Amino acid sequence: MSCPVIHSAELNPAVLPLDWLIGTWESDELGEGSFPSIAPFRYAETLHFSHVGQPVINFMFNAFHAESKKPLHRECGFIRIQPGTNNVAFIIAQNSGLVEIEEGELIGQQLTLNSRALARTSFAKEPYVQQISRFIQLRPDGRLEQTMSMALENKPLTQHLHITYRRAS
Prior knowledge:
This protein is an all-beta fold and 169 residues long. Helices cover 0% and strands 62% of the residues. The protein has no helices and eleven strands. Strands 1, 2, 3, 4, 5, 6, 7, 8, 9, 10 and 11 form an eleven-stranded antiparallel beta sheet that branches. The protein is globular, with a radius of gyration of 16 Å. The mean pLDDT is 94.
C-alpha cells in the first residue's frame, strides 16, 4: 500500500518549502549500509513523497535487498513544518516496530534531523535504538541524497546508511 497522490489538490502553503521532495525517487545506485555490530550490506530503495492538500507531506520509504529484491526496511509517516519557522518534524512508523519523531531544520534544500522521541513494541529486538540522525539534501546535480546515523544502547552515534536517488516521477 502506498500513500495516494491527489493531483487536483494544491500544495498547502505551510509545506511549500518542501515542494522539491514531492514525487517518487529511486536509488540510482545501491545504497551502503554498515554498523559496528553487522556486516556491511548494499540495498536499493524507493521514496514516495505526496500530499493531499493538508499542511503535511506524506511519505513512504521502501528498501529492498540488493540481489534478491526482497522487501527489507519500511518507513512511513508525515512531515510537518512549524508555522513561521524552518523547524521540521518527521513522524515515522517503521516495520521493525519502532516509532519515532525526528525534528530539525530545513535550510534551502537540506534537512538536518535528530530523534526527539523513540518508542517501540514491547517485543522489539535488542539492542534498542537510542538515537537517530538523518540528513537529506537535493544536490546541485538534481539527485537526492540521504545519510542516516544511529546509536544503540551499547554503540555511539555512527553512520548506518548512505544512498542517492534520482527522480522517477
